[in-house]
Design a protein that fits this description.
By secondary structure, this protein is α+β, with helices and mostly antiparallel strands.
Length: 116
């Protein structure tokens, strides 16, 4: 149980710290919109790798550009993350688009349309 709890705690820290970097403009890339958020982080059991899912209310094309820019800035993000995390190694990050928020909103609209 302790190992799973530790992984979840690190995943939460990664999500919060990357979210702060995006929101405060620490990552200075015009392709990265501050209207996106980190929806989920999945780390390997040894915490060497983390998949970071990015979601937002943007078009798929815009979200993909943001994810591309984040993957491009991966080294910079990992360096900043290493300063904040109290772990021996900083996970290697890979960013992925997550359209679940947008999909959920579309589903709610469809349900509302059926009810009217």
């Amino acid at each position: 149980m302790g190992d799973g709890f530790r992984i979840k705690r690190v995943e939460t820290l990664i999500r919060e710290e990357i979210g702060k970097m995006i929101l405060t403009g620490v990552i200075k890339d015009p392709r990265i919109s501050n209207l996106v958020s980190v929806s989920d982080v999945e780390s390997s059991r040894d915490l060497k790798y983390s998949k970071v899912y990015i979601s937002g209310f943007e078009s798929d094309k815009s979200l993909n550009k943001t994810v591309e820019a984040l993957n491009h800035a991966r080294g910079f993000i990992q360096m900043n993350l290493a300063k904040r995390l109290k772990t021996r190694n900083t996970p290697i990050l890979t960013f992925y688009p997550d359209s679940s928020i947008k999909d959920g909103i579309e589903m709610i609209k469809k349900i509302e349309d059926l009810n009217t």
